Amino acid sequence: MNKNKSVCVFCGASNNVPKTFLDIGATFGGILAEKDITLVYGGGDCGVMGAIANASLKTQGHVTGVFPVSLRNIENEHQSLSEIIIVNTMHERKQCMFDRTDAFVVFPGGFGTMDEMFEILTWKQLKLHHKPIVIFNYEHYWDPLIALMNSIIDNGFARPETAGYYTVVDRVEAILEVLNF
């Protein structure tokens, strides 16, 4: 059983994305609930973020949202979560999500998603944690970012072993296979 396992998902909060991104988010949310894995995420009710949370809740999953008050003017926190934690800052949000999870999954998203991913990756590079990081390259969304990350390593701005700090997958089923949950 995976009762004590949790996955933090970094993902987009925009509804103005192709429906396929929302659908794959919903698929993953359902998978987490079916596997009894707690979803930890940013606490919003829109975009891929909301799709993952809603599907997990619909399948009786446990969902913990971490929502900074500073976002209330931009988006709404989800009102039906298993647990909502209100924090003051984005940094507190990332720290809280980090403290409550066993692994990180990066779904398609925007600048905030990249901010979260790079901070967690940097923490791993600095040996502050050993939690798995999976980049879900759905429909080749992250190809340009992966090319940039490879360039950073190839040009010596990061050590070659940095590439081993994360795993890139292109199938939703492969996420939990990599995590071995």
Topology:
Blueprint: E1 6-10, H1 19-34, E2 38-41, H2 47-58, E3 63-68, E4 83-87, H3 90-99, E5 103-106, H4 111-125, E6 133-136, H5 143-154, E7 167-169, H6 172-179
Parallel strand pairs: 1-2, 1-5, 2-3, 3-4, 5-6, 6-7
Helix pairs in contact: 1-2
Give the neighbour order of strands across the main sheet.
4-3-2-1-5-6-7
Q: State the shape.
A: globular
SSE topology string: EHEHEEHEHEHEH
Main pleated-sheet profile: 7 strands, parallel
Fraction of residues in H or I helices: 40-55%
What structural class should be given to the helix and strand makeup? alpha/beta
Number of helices: 6
Taking all Cα atoms into account, the compactness measure Rg is 15 Å
The residue ranges in which pLDDT falls below 50 over 5 or more consecutive positions are: none
First-residue to last-residue Cα separation: 9 Å
- Give the mean pLDDT: 95
Fraction in beta strands:
15-25%
- Count of individual beta strands: 7
Task: Describe this entry's structure for a reader.
The model has no long low-confidence stretch (mean pLDDT 95). The protein is an alpha/beta fold. Strands 4-3-2-1-5-6-7 form a 7-stranded parallel beta sheet. Helix 1 (19-34) runs parallel beside helix 2. It has helices at residues 19-34, 47-58, 90-99, 111-125, 143-154, 172-179; strands at 6-10, 38-41, 63-68, 83-87, 103-106, 133-136, 167-169. It is 40% helix and 17% strand.
In a nutshell, what does this entry contain?
The chain has 181 residues and is α/β, with parallel strands linked by helices.
